[in-house]
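Quick one, T. Sequence first:
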Amino acid sequence: VEWGVGGIYTVKYVCGKSSVEKKIYIYNNTLPVMSGVTDKTVSSAAEILDGVTATDQFGFSLALTYFVNGVEKGSLAAGDNSVEIKAADIVGNVKTVTVKITLKTA
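Structure tokens:
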């Protein structure tokens, strides 16, 4: 393991005739990767994150959240809204993408 260098390292522990290998994940400042983030029209705020995914530098899935006018999971107004979608990995690297979400009215 090279301290300070991100990557996946395999460490092998040996005790007598027994051994076990473990993977160690060293994170660096690589931002999460988001996909499916696009401007769209929705019927309700529950649809904002539909089709959106995020992964960390090793491909592990990350939780997503959104902010409307700076309020986490805030309410959408009828018409166009500027919405920030955020993903963060376990070491605090945060990716933010701003999209236009249009709330269609009945």
